[in-house]
Specification:
Blueprint (H helix, E strand, L loop, with lengths): L2 E6 L10 E5 L5 E4 L1 E2 L2 H8 L11 E2 L5 H17 L1
Antiparallel strand pairs: 1-2, 2-3, 4-5
């Protein structure tokens, strides 16, 4: 598996999280973020179950440009498949 690191939250205190990557083979977007608060998860559950293999994560709005870059990259890769 080859992941292209897109970036980290520019305001992260520790420089570790949240982060965004793109899988260079599948074009999938991967995110690392803060676990959502129980009240947020409860609200999300109104739309349907969240399997044990999935999680709701929070990314700050200031990361929109990084997410946009990752999504654009993923879209280009998908178009080549």
């Amino acid at each position: 598996m080859a992941l292209r690191f897109v970036g980290k939250d520019p305001n992260s205190d520790t420089g570790q999280c949240p982060s965004v990557w793109v899988d260079e083979v599948s074009g999938d977007v991967l995110v690392q973020g803060w676990k959502a608060e129980p009240a947020v998860v409860a609200e999300c559950l109104k739309a349907g179950d969240i399997p044990d293999t999935e999680a709701v994560v929070r990314l700050p709005a200031r990361m929109v440009e990084l997410l946009r870059e990752a999504c654009d990259d993923a879209e280009r890769r998908r178009a080549r498949l």
